[in-house]
Design brief:
Blueprint (H helix, E strand, L loop, with lengths): L7 H11 L7 E2 H8 L5 H10 L11 E2 L16 H8 L4 E2 L2 E2 L2 H4 L3 H4 L1
Parallel strand pairs: 1-2
Antiparallel strand pairs: 3-4
The chain binds a DNA duplex through helix 2, helix 3 and strand 2.
Length: 111
DNA sequence: TCTATGACTCCGG
DNA sequence: CCCGGAGCCATAG
């Protein structure tokens, strides 16, 4: 765990997700692309699954390209992910973020 | 080494 | 935009 180890890919995802500003969201593809693996968006989701051990990773700010909370079922509660987003000022209806493109944040913009 | 899986994305209809 | 199918790639068993 200390040192990068093979989890480098996961750590990269964690770093990017942690850089997501408050009240902002992004998509798996954006993160994957930022990591240089645009076609590995699924891996990002996989990394998120492992992020359960790290509370420093706001996985609730990561949704699919449609802005849908596809991973809400992976949280402890049923609507925990939605609650977290709404807590940050992000409106969520039917497991989908309202004005997703408005809240969308690209990791490359941070650069 | 190979197979199966997945919190995705793209493409065609 | 919605629906169904195919592609991709890394991790786990």
């Amino acid at each position: 765990m200390l040192t990068k180890d093979k989890t480098n890919f996961f750590e990269k995802v964690y770093v990017v997700v942690r850089q997501i500003p408050y009240g902002r969201v992004t998509s798996y593809g954006a993160i994957a692309k930022y990591l240089g693996a645009a076609r590995s968006a699924r891996m990002v989701g996989w990394a998120m699954n492992a992020s359960h051990s790290m509370d420093d990773v706001p996985a609730h700010r990561v949704v699919n390209r449609k802005g849908m909370l596809t991973g809400k079922f992976h949280f402890d509660g049923t609507n925990l992910m939605q609650q977290l987003l709404e807590n940050e000022g992000v409106k969520v209806v039917d497991n989908q973020i309202v004005d997703f493109e408005n809240y969308f944040w690209d990791p490359q913009e941070e650069c």
